[in-house]
Recover the amino acids of this structure.
């Protein structure tokens, strides 16, 4: 059995007719080599012809960097909902000449500890901790010199985080209805302030609700009803809207706290012979892929996952300030709101 010998820097230098140190400076992009353009061209051509790849392990010993980023997620990699977080992170890492080592824990703390140890053993340059749905995240103690960025999460001990701007997103949802002329018969689907007074969901959910309620107040509006449900899933949206139609005949608009609730609402309305948006307008959150396939399409406030993933990597590599970084939630206008 024969093995192919790895092409070395010395091989490239020999082919280019230069010293190893000169070839190294050129391949590492040193701006002050004082070598001719011809020398640069010969080295780059020799590297391409020989199929040279830098020895990352050796380079890391010299510069104390491995050009690798650890990425610890709960279920980001195995669910379609938040895959944009990884997509954005990968694009930013590639642009910066880094690779990402991805681990997934399914929210299991013991697996998370194992994942962190594995990444630290590989001397990653920093770790991004990501969650599928924005929440407060527990993180075990890490070596003090390990850069950390939280993606779609917060932690009181690690202040650098990337989050969607939920408060502005909540305001935007209400503004869409108000600007369309809706003032009466508006129902909030997914939360009731009285019933959930002492219940904590997450900081980000609280911000979404704060934005919704602040915009309602600023516009001089109030909800006809608020429907509480812990799980924001289609079957709960369906059941709640069915009950609403029996008890609130003048229902005119729904603010759904996520798209799955809106999917259930669509079904309940259709079964009652009511049309969206002619009879009932809807606005929602998240911009789930299915929202664009509903008929009519669902107007929703999107989660900017790819932008968030890219920003997390940029902050990790750039040594960002220890603070929250909010990314604007895009307003996705489709056809579920009627002008009145």
């Amino acid at each position: 059995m024969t093995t192919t010998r790895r092409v070395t820097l010395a091989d490239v230098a020999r082919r280019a007719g230069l010293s190893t140190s000169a070839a190294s400076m050129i391949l590492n992009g040193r701006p002050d080599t004082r070598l001719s353009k011809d020398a640069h061209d010969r080295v780059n051509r020799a590297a391409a012809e020989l199929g040279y790849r830098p020895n990352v392990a050796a380079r890391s010993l010299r510069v104390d960097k491995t050009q690798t980023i650890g990425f610890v997620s709960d279920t980001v990699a195995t669910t379609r909902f938040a895959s944009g977080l990884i997509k954005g992170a990968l694009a930013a890492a590639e642009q910066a000449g880094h690779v990402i080592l991805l681990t997934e824990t399914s929210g299991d703390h013991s697996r998370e500890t194992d994942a962190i140890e594995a990444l630290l053993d590989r001397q990653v340059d920093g770790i991004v901790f990501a969650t599928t749905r924005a929440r407060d995240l527990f993180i075990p103690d890490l070596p003090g010199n390990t850069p950390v960025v939280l993606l779609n999460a917060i932690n009181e001990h690690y202040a650098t985080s990337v989050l969607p701007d939920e408060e502005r997103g909540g305001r935007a949802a209400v503004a869409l209805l108000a600007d369309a002329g809706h003032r009466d018969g508006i129902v909030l689907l997914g939360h009731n302030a009285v019933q959930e007074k002492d219940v904590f969901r997450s900081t980000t959910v609280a911000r979404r609700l704060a934005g919704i309620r602040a915009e309602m107040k600023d516009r001089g509006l109030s909800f006809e009803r608020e429907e509480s449900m812990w799980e924001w899933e289609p079957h709960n949206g369906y059941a709640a809207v069915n009950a609403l139609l029996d008890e609130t005949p003048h229902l005119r608009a729904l603010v759904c706290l996520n798209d799955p609730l809106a999917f259930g609402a669509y079904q309940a309305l259709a079964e009652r012979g009511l049309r969206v948006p002619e009879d009932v307008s809807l606005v929602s959150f998240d911009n789930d892929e299915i929202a664009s396939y509903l008929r009519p399409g669902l107007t929703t406030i999107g989660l900017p996952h790819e932008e968030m993933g890219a920003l997390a990597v940029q902050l990790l590599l750039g040594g960002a300030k220890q603070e929250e970084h909010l990314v604007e939630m895009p307003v996705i206008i489709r056809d579920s709101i009627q002008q009145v």
Observations:
- The chain has a mean pLDDT of 89.
- Residues 117 and 142 are 9 Å apart (CA to CA).
